[in-house]
């Protein structure tokens, strides 16, 4: 098994006043030639947006975009006619495909919104843009990893999916747990990001916002300590 460590304090940082950002991979003003992407995972941004502020109308193309608010709520509007609010506890999917414009604004005038913004390269370009969102809690099983997003070819009619052989998994561990995550494809890798708590992977201890990428393996053993929350994104490596 090969691995790469991304400690939380090695991420890129940005302070735009209205936006405090941490970048796991090269983005905006942060460039590291060794941290362009992990396989097909291109962006994992950890953002804090000030009250009533946000990302105004802007375009995207040929990217699978996943947004997971951690605190507060975002007001979404796009050129497909979708408009609504995604709250902490929701997960949003947008396939930019052949082209879409959208805005994501803090829906609250007094509280910051905290969110993860994640981009994955699609396996097919110029598809029809699409949008979906769901509550995360009904998708989760305690003390194990639960798939909250799947590839289109593996998803049931009511499940969230992306145009890529990628699985987004969230693990909520109320007790110390040892779990083996088996990759759906041995040619894939897993990017494991600690939202809260502490985990151990291949003798590496990771704390809040630390991450590790592993590949060239069929499975990965993860020890999660009590009250840990973990995001595991499985993606093709080439």
Distinctive features:
metal-binding, single chain, metal ion binding, seven-stranded antiparallel β-sheet, about 240 residues, Jelly Rolls, mainly beta, RmlC-like_jellyroll
Explain briefly what this protein structure is.
It is built from no helices and 22 strands.
Description:
Belongs to the pirin family. Residues 13-120 form the Pirin N-terminal domain. GO terms for molecular function: metal ion binding. This is Pirin. This protein is mostly beta strands and 238 residues long. The protein has a single domain, classed as Sandwich (Jelly Rolls), CATH 2.60.120. Helices cover 0% and strands 56% of the residues. It contains no helices and 22 strands. It has strands at residues 2-6, 12-15, 19-23, 41-49, 54-60, 64-71, 73-78, 83-87, 90-95, 100-106, 113-120, 130-135, 145-151, 161-162, 167-173, 177-182, 188-196, 199-201, 204-206, 211-215, 219-224, 228-236. The chain has a seven-stranded mixed beta sheet, with no helix packed on it. A hairpin with a 2-residue loop joins strand 18 (199-201) and strand 19. The mean pLDDT is 97.
Secondary structure layout plus pairing:
Blueprint (H helix, E strand, L loop, with lengths): L1 E5 L5 E4 L3 E5 L17 E9 L4 E7 L3 E8 L1 E6 L4 E5 L2 E6 L4 E7 L6 E8 L9 E6 L9 E7 L9 E2 L4 E7 L3 E6 L5 E9 L2 E3 L2 E3 L4 E5 L3 E6 L3 E9 L2
Parallel strand pairs: 13-14
Antiparallel strand pairs: 1-20, 2-3, 3-4, 4-11, 5-10, 6-9, 6-11, 7-8, 7-10, 9-12, 13-15, 15-22, 16-21, 17-20, 17-22, 18-19, 18-21
Keywords: Iron, Metal-binding
Cofactor: Fe cation
Family: Belongs to the pirin family.
